[in-house]
Specification:
5 helices, elongated
Amino acid sequence: MSSIPWDKLHAAITRFPIALLLFSTICDLVSVTFKGRSCARELRFVSFYGLAAAALASVGAVVSGIALTGGDLWCSGDLLQHHRFIWPAFGLLLALVVWRLVVKDAMAGAALYLYLALMALGLRSSPPQDTSAESCSSTPGVEP
């Protein structure tokens, strides 16, 4: 029985939440730009499902990352720095989905702009760094 290649799986899965969050943010920004037009509502609808898909994909990225590190949630060195960005970004992404589930399309004014700013912050908190070759010292069978 072959083992799961967690490093390749993690590297592949992590692209989806970042891309979907970017897509969702762009859809929301365009919907604000075309506020009042019929396409704005559809863009918010698409944005919500893009955000929900990003949250689901991020769970896969987290699970594969935890498996890759052997269960160590923080590690050390560059991977520690990576996790200092990723854990808050993961929490923020889940919070944004909950916010959208609760508020639905009722966002307006300051709440809408705060939401968009938090989405942009979530994108900024997901630095595109390749840590797939790195490992935690606790990962079994992998040299640190």
